[in-house]
């Protein structure tokens, strides 16, 4: 059984999609980040970094296994099940594009959203920097997809699952609510192909029965951005 620590944000959404695609049995354990539950001792024992997603696999090799960070979880589950990980010949490409998303597309997208929507005051330099870097990553993927259906090899893989998590939030990243991928036709075609998969609709329902906190009040800000309140030593 997979114990899945979840909040309805892009990185946990990737893991939800894999679990639904692979039809693995799992239990959702909500972590309400605006209430600070990611900083509880119980959760820090699973992920010392205090971030979602994380999993505990009670049927791991050699016993109970934990994994945290969405890229690590996707690799772990892909290797465990032998699904959505391409061929042996694809491995270098798969790792390269997975890390491209995990260290580039994801973080720059997240910072673009933060400085446009969560920062206490608008900082034009930061907004321009992160949004333009997110756009540059979109351009790289758009060019890569010009003559192919999926990001790696000839089949859908964990790289497509990983990219979907953040590209699903393109409207927030680019502050363009209507057709945010219009400038990236190959990326838009690819995204539509992922969206058409039945597992996507199921993944979107994960956690829907839990009332996560939605208010971004002072408690939420301190819980989500604790380094902003840290005392310098």
Automatic annotation (TrEMBL):
The record places domain GST N-terminal at 1-85
Q: What is its EC number?
A: 2.5.1.18
Q: Which InterPro entries match?
A: Glutathione-S-Trfase_C-like, Glutathione-S-Trfase_C_sf, Glutathione_S-Trfase, Glutathione_S-Trfase_N, Thioredoxin-like_sf
Q: Can you tell which superkingdom this protein's organism belongs to? A: Bacteria
Pfam families from the UniProt entry? GST_C_2, GST_N_2
Keyword Transferase among record annotations: yes
GO MF terms here are:
glutathione transferase activity
EC class of the enzyme, as a word: transferase
Keywords attached to this entry: Transferase
Q: Which ranges carry the GST C-terminal domain?
A: 87-227
| Keyword Transport tagged | no
Name of the protein in question: Glutathione S-transferase
Q: Which organism is it from?
A: Sphingobium indicum (strain DSM 16413 / CCM 7287 / MTCC 6362 / UT26 / NBRC 101211 / UT26S)
Lineage, top ranks: Bacteria, Pseudomonadati, Pseudomonadota, Alphaproteobacteria, Sphingomonadales
- Recorded name of the encoding gene: gst
């Amino acid at each position: 059984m997979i114990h899945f620590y979840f909040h309805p944000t892009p990185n946990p959404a990737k893991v939800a999609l894999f679990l639904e695609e692979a039809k693995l049995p799992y239990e959702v354990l909500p972590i309400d980040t605006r209430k600070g539950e990611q900083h509880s001792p119980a959760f820090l024992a699973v992920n010392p970094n205090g971030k979602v997603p994380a999993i505990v696999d009670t049927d791991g090799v050699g016993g109970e296994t934990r994994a945290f960070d969405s890229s690590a979880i996707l690799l772990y589950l892909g290797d465990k099940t032998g699904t959505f990980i391409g061929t042996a010949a694809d491995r270098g490409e798969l790792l390269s594009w997975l890390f491209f998303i995990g260290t580039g597309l994801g973080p720059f997208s997240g910072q673009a959203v933060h400085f446009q929507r969560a920062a206490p005051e608008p900082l034009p330099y930061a907004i321009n920097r992160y949004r333009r870097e997110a756009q540059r990553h979109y351009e790289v993927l758009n060019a890569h997809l010009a003559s192919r259906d999926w990001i790696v090899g000839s089949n859908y893989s964990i790289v497509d699952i990983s990219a979907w998590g953040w590209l699903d939030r393109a409207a927030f990243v680019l502050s363009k609510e209507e057709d945010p991928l219009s400038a990236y036709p190959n990326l838009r075609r690819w995204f539509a192909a992922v969206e058409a998969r039945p597992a996507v609709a199921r993944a979107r329902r994960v956690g829907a029965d839990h009332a996560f906190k939605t208010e971004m009040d002072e408690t939420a800000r301190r819980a989500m951005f604790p380094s902003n309140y840290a005392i310098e030593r």
